[in-house]
Amino acid sequence: MADAVQYRLEEINRHNGRESCWIVIEGKVYDVTKYIDQHPGGDEAILDDAGTNATQDFIDVGHSSDAREILETLFIGYLHPDDEEKNNSTSWLRIAAYASVPVILPGTLMLAFVLLSRKK
Ligand code: HEM
Fold first, then answer.
1. Taking all residues of the chain, what is their mean pLDDT, rounded to a whole number?
2. Which numbered atom of ligand 1 lies nearest the CA of 30?
3. Would you place residue 44 in the very low, low, confident or very high pLDDT band (cuts 50, 70, 90)?
4. Whether 24 contacts 56, CB under 8 Å
5. Ligand 1 center to residue 81 CA distance, Å?
6. d(Cα 105, Cα 94) in Å, to the nearest integer?
7. Phi and psi of 4, rounded to 5°?
8. Helix (H, G, I), strand (E, B) or coil at 117
């Protein structure tokens, strides 16, 4: 990847429409402009993520290996390493949400148990 092009998030954010549409998936930048109208999941699915990090949405759909092959034909460069963290801010929210489950769930059960046993 020595001479691979690196793009700043600021520039990627500008390609956010039908006339020019870039997305980031797993640290790689793709120019998906020509693919929007061919996408089996509809143009809106891609346009909603235009100019941003679409990693989580792409994974959540459970895209096939065929989809990944198409993706590689649209590769134009890498996300600049300094923008990786900014780009991943939403995954921190996810981690926090998942991490809170083991605290909230037993807490609620314990509270319910205490309230029920006090009734007698
Ligand atoms: C350029 C990047 C993308 C490519 C190359 C791509 C490719 C594909 C392909 C080939 C399919 C057919 C099913 C499969 O083979 O997995 C598909 C379905 C789909 N894609 Fe994408 N996709 C891309 C980005 C996205 C994004 C960012 C979203 C955002 C949510 C999305 C949402 C969907 C949905 C909802 C379906 C339909 C799934 C179904 O009907 O079961 N795709 N995509």
1. 90
2. 1
3. very high
4. no
5. 26
6. 17
7. -70, 145
8. helix
Residue 90 amino acid letter: T
The distance in angstroms from the start CA to the end CA of the chain is 69
3-state secondary structure string across 45-87: HHHCCCCCECHHHHHHHCCCHHHHHHHHHCEEEEECHHHHHHH
Q: What is the pLDDT of residue 42?
A: 97
Q: Which residues lie with the beta carbon below 6 Å from any ligand 1 atom?
A: 30, 32, 35, 39-41, 45-46, 49, 54, 57-58, 61, 63-64, 66-67, 70-71, 74
- Cβ-contact 6, 77 below 8 angstroms: yes
Task: Give Cβ neighbours of residue 96 (< 8 Å, ≥ 6 apart).
Answer: none
Residue of the CA atom closest to atom 12 of ligand 1:
40
